[in-house]
Amino acid sequence: MKQDIINVKSISQLHGIFGFGKPTHPLISIIDVSTWEIPEQFIGVKYTSELYIIGLKDKSCGLQYGRNPYDFDEGVLFFTAPDQVQSVSKGQQINEIQGWMLFFHHDLIRNTPLGRTIEDYQFFTYDVHEALHLSDAEQETITGCKLMIQNEISERIDNHSQTVIASSLELLLNLSRRYYERQFNTRSAQNSDVVSQFHSLLNSYFKSGKFVETGIPSVEYFSDKIHLSGNYLSDLLKKETGYTIKDHVNNFIIEKAKTLLLSESETVSGIAYSLGFNYPHYFNRLFKSKTGMTPQEYRKLN
Q1: Measured distance CA(99)–CA(32) in Å, rounded
Q2: What is the top-level taxon of the source organism (predicted)?
Q3: Nearest 10 degrees: CA dihedral of 115, 117, 120, 126?
């Protein structure tokens, strides 16, 4: 098989590539992983898809998402959004792995409430090592949702099929969001270390003059340093502190700005530049949104 990246555009194409047989529904499919044999010709092949993926597996299966391999030794639930690069690092025999994988195209939910909120489920963009670890009870509940969907797509499609399938998917995703919050809670000590590391990075970035050199730090800057995906890190911070990465950075800028406005004779434009703003009016807008007054008004008042 060629080493070019293969783009999987549909459920039918997915079934054709991996030899799953004809799908029972054109926009969604559930594969029993124990029946999935991956021959050597697929190893190392990169592919992307226009499909959302939800997978429950019991151990390492050789799948790799971006730079990170899936290497867990216990059952976890993971999510993949469309257009992420994936590959297979090792072959797989029948009955070697237990679990299931659910694939669906956005057209399935396009005219449903879930279609308008699917991007709110940020765990679709988490790295694979940030997968959701389920208790036995949670795994049973999630599998129950999968079975409802499976039963629906095995029946004859009618006018209610899309609504029932989409609502079942939405239930599965809402339960996953709940379980992720529980996972954040049970790892509070570890999360506190991450919060401390984040604040240390932010302070070091400022002290080293990088606000002037490279501008306001991006989400990717922190995620690369802490080795977590941007959305996972932001959600973790939101859970622990009530603020996202962007909130923390903006609050940090405002506090530094207040100090500079009162302790230096530097112009507002100069202060804006020192805090990473090439255009002062963006700084003025942020400052007013956070304090209710312009930088000039704050300086005069104090």
Answers
A1: 6
A2: Bacteria
A3: -20
How does strand 63-65 pair with strand 46-49? unpaired
**What is the full per-residue pLDDT of the chain (302 aa) written as tens digits?**
445 678 899 999 999 988 888 999 999 999 988 877 776 777 777 888 899 999 998 654 444 444 444 444 456 899 999 988 777 666 666 766 788 999 999 999 999 999 999 999 999 988 877 889 888 899 999 999 999 999 999 988 888 899 999 999 999 999 999 999 988 888 777 778 889 999 999 999 999 999 999 999 999 999 999 999 999 999 999 988 889 999 999 999 999 999 999 887 889 999 999 999 999 999 999 999 999 999 999 998 87
Rounded distance between C-alpha atoms, residue 232 and residue 103, angstroms: 22
Asked whether 286 and 253 are in contact (CB, 8 A), the reply is yes
Phi-psi region of 66 (alpha: psi -120 to 50; beta: other; left: phi over 0): left
- What is the Cα 299 distance to its own chain's centre? 41
Q: Read off the pTM.
A: 0.72
Name the DSSP class of 122.
G
